[in-house]
Amino acid sequence: MSFASPLFLWFFMPATLLAYLLFPPRHRNAVVAVASLIFYAWGAGTHTPLLLSAIAVNYGAGLALGGARLRGRPRARRGQSALRNRAAMGAATAPPPPPCRTNTAKATESR
């Protein structure tokens, strides 16, 4: 589903907007987050676990940064959270394809 598809424009977006307006203000962020996950899973379902792991890592990093700010060590926590994000991305991506091998032997001429 893309942003320009009729399914998005006529069904998904109005339903999301209606849900956003019907829920109380304290739950609206959750409505948008769930709608975003559904939209993303619809278009790129194979990468949804990567997105969920990034959300969990970043949420934990935010909690750790909040506690580190109170203790006066936010820089170390920022570096750790950046490394965790890179590790999650690296673990979920496929390895690069093997290099293309070409035949370097010269063709023999037949006479």
Structure description:
The longest helix is centred in the middle third of the chain and has 24 residues, at 48-71. The model has no long low-confidence stretch (mean pLDDT 76). The chain has four helices and no strands. The protein folds into two domains: 1-43; 46-91. Helix 1 (6-22) runs antiparallel to helix 2 and helix 3 packs antiparallel against helix 4 (74-92). The chain starts with 5 loop residues before the first helix and ends in a 19-residue tail after the last helix. It is an all-alpha fold. Residues 101-111 have a biased composition (Polar residues). This is D-alanyl-lipoteichoic acid acyltransferase DltB (MBOAT superfamily). Keywords: Acyltransferase, Membrane, Transferase, Transmembrane, Transmembrane helix. The chain crosses the membrane at residues 6-23, 51-70. Residues 74-111 are annotated as: Disordered.
Low-confidence stretches: none
Count of helical regions = 4
Helix content: 55-70%
Please describe the biggest sheet, giving its number of strands, its sense, and whether it closes into a barrel. Answer: none
**From the alpha-carbon coordinates, what is the Rg to the nearest angstrom?**
23 Å
The mean pLDDT is 76
Structural class: mainly alpha
State the total count of DSSP E strands: 0
**Tally of domains:** 2
Portion in strands: under 5%
N-to-C series of helices and strands: HHHH
Query: What is the distance, rounded to the nearest whole angstrom, between the alpha carbons of the first and last residues?
Result: 60 Å
